[in-house]
Amino acid sequence: MVSLIEKKLRNRISKERSLEMAKYGRTKIYDEIATFLQGDKQTAFSLINHTLAIIDDLIDSNINTKQLDRAKEILNKSFNNEKIFIEQEWEEDIFRLGQTLLKLQKKGFVYARDIFHEVINYWNIENRNLNRNGKILNSSDLDKLNLEIGKSVGVQFLCLLCPELDKKIIYSIASIYGFSIKLSDNLSDLKEDLEKGYINISEENIRKYKIKLNNLLEKDLRLYITKEFERIKKYYQKGDEKIEEILKQSSSSKKGLLIFKDIAHSWLNQVSEVYNLK
User: Fold this and answer.
1) Which of 274, 141, 127, 151 is nearest to 200 (CA)?
2) Which of 47, 77, 140, 274 is the most buried (most CB within 10 A)?
3) Which class for 251: exposed (0-12), middle (13-18), buried (19 or more C-beta within 10 A)?
4) Are 5 and 46 a contacting pair, CB within 8 Å?
5) Are residues 16 and 10 in contact, defined by beta-carbon separation less than 8 angstroms?
6) What predicted TM-score, i.e. pTM, was given to this entire model?
7) Stretch 69-84: mean pLDDT, rounded?
8) Domain edges within the chain
9) Alpha carbon separation from 109 to 114, 163, 265 (Å, rounded)
10) Which long-range contacts (CB under 8 A, 24 or more apart) does 234-242 make?
11) 157 touches 257 (CB < 8 A)
12) With contact defined as beta carbons under 8 Å apart, do 178 and 151 qualify?
């Protein structure tokens, strides 16, 4: 059963994000997670999944990266059981996340502190990501940034979905699938991000495909999109092989792993449908 906090958070995410979640099957997966996880773990997942998205959309609308500093301050205070004045609804969500992770830690949940640090890490990476507006990165730097972002989110999810797994395994899965998810997300929103100044095409590929950033046309991006989609599919294949390898060794985390795999593949399905690619 979907919790009250999950329902409230879904009602507050942007209409565009909500429609996207439903269209590409993520709403259905989140419903499944709501029955798979229980109690504070379920609450933590809902808060991580939706509140971080709400903050991302908020920053997209006002380009105020100071909100990330505020979010880090609130999470740090709440996780360390310190008082802080709360002004806005999203701030209350962050405070509740810190308190929930603290409760999990006190109950002996092994990954509570890791999740706390990873959310902070995500905001640090996101701050760097936002500050690259208008900049063109080389392929190595762009891939490194995308890996960091995707891996961070993957770790947060997997620590809750598969706490039985060793930390090294969690990080390896998060790296492969997280990178795949981020590349898929970038490609899905490619033209929209370019128009906002976030250039998710490397300088090498801009030269190779003769892409004119000041005169963006869908047809001029098509060859790049097709080639990038082929690259993304190869990373998904690596992720699928990794999951199969882990499941052969142990089936204790099968449900959580398959849920995370479904989340990851929903982004591949999205980019595939956006550009009518297979």
Assistant:
1) 141
2) 47
3) exposed
4) yes
5) no
6) 0.95
7) 97
8) 1-131, 165-278
9) 10, 8, 28
10) 235/176, 235/179, 235/180, 235/183, 236/177, 236/180, 236/264, 236/265, 236/268, 238/176, 239/173, 239/176, 239/177, 239/180, 239/264, 242/172, 242/173, 242/176
11) no
12) yes
Token readout for 161 is 């979905």
d(CA 274, CA 277): 8
**The two structure tokens encoding residue 201:** 């095409």
Structure tokens at 54: 């709400």
Pair of tokens at residue 166: 């060793």
Shortest CA distance to 178 belongs to which of 59, 112, 274, 263?
A: 263
- The pLDDT tens digits for 182-229 are 999 999 999 999 988 999 999 999 999 999 887 777 778 999 999 999
Residue 273 in tokens: 């449908």
- Find the range with the poorest average confidence among 2-6, 37-41, 139-143, 165-169: 2-6
The pair of structure tokens assigned to 152 is 């961070």
Please state the rounded mean pLDDT for residues 149-160: 98
Could you tell me the CA-to-CA distances from 18 to 13, 88, 188, 269 in Å, in that order?
A: 6, 21, 16, 16
